[in-house]
Design a protein that fits this description.
Blueprint lengths: L1 E7 L3 H29 L11 E7 L6 H13 L2 H16 L1 H6 L5 H30 L8 H25 L3 H18 L12 H8 L3 H14 L3 H30 L1
Parallel strand pairs: 1-2
Helix pairs in contact: 2-5, 2-9, 3-5, 3-6, 3-7, 5-6, 6-7, 6-9, 6-10, 9-10
Length: about 260
């Protein structure tokens, strides 16, 4: 009996577990259920291969962990501008320049957006550099559309920068901004966004927290564009989630900005 199993190699840990589990269950089925049938027919099961099992891995045939991890880590590297914008707001509070900016005719939302734009430009440059590094140094394939990846990366950048501004609104010193950024952005980004551990295997509370991290949908986007080469017809729910988080964080920062200054 020929049986082909196709495994998604974008998550090597899950794919490796699935391949091993399928192989063991197939062997168990042959040695238990089929062995008795062959014995009644006076056939030796060792001389016959009743099941021709062929496991094929797509998108990451060698099941290399770096091929899966490197695209996910792109979100972590691109999260550093959020740390910078949080430190910028804290530094201006320390030096007393924030009050001077608030005395100008610009609105608080315009002020916050103005703080985001320079770091967003730096992040856009990082999109090109990180893609080149992933392909050249780590041999990660890029099978999708770079224009789509760049557009979705811009949305992620503004979402993560808006989260950095929320952090900067609630802290008054640069060390506090660094500490809170690591607690809110980087530590959850490593362990809850699915870069190293599958989200489906996490506790329910952890999965709920992962939903509100911009890195969670962006990790799916990076792996989808890099490895599987899917388009917006597959990635649009994750793009919508990034836009939603961007709007939520921006509104929160604008609402609490003036209050926290007072």
């Amino acid at each position: 009996i020929p049986i082909q199993i196709i495994i998604d190699g974008t998550e090597p840990s899950s794919g490796g577990f699935a391949a091993e589990h399928i192989g063991l269950r197939t062997e168990e089925f042959i040695n238990t259920s089929l062995a008795s049938q062959f014995q009644t027919s006076d056939l030796n099961i060792d001389s016959i291969q009743p099941i021709d099992l062929r496991i094929r891995t797509w998108f990451n045939p060698s099941m290399k962990s770096e091929v899966s991890v490197i695209p996910g880590l792109v979100s972590m590297v691109m999260g550093f501008p959020a740390l910078s914008v949080a430190m910028t707001l804290a530094r201006e509070r320390e030096h007393g320049t924030m009050e001077q900016l608030m005395a100008t005719p610009i609105s608080r939302l315009d002020l916050l957006i103005g703080k985001m734009i320079p770091y967003a430009i730096i992040g856009m440059i990082n999109v090109f550099l990180l893609t080149l590094v992933a392909m050249a140094l780590f041999s990660v394939p890029f099978n999708g559309s770079f224009l789509l990846f760049f557009a979705l990366s811009i949305i992620f950048l503004f979402a993560i920068l808006a989260l950095g501004i929320v952090i900067g609104v609630f802290v008054h010193t640069q060390p506090a901004a660094v500490g809170l950024s690591f607690l809110v952005i980087f530590f959850p980004g490593f362990f809850l966004t699915g870069i190293f551990f599958p989200i489906v295997a996490m506790p329910e509370i952890a999965r709920l927290e992962a939903l509100f991290l911009p890195g969670t949908p962006y990790a799916v986007i990076t792996r989808g564009v890099f490895l599987t080469g899917v388009g917006l017809d597959v990635l649009w729910p994750h793009a919508v989630m990034l836009v939603f988080l961007w709007l939520v964080f921006t509104v929160c920062s604008a609402l609490f900005f003036k209050k926290k200054l007072g």
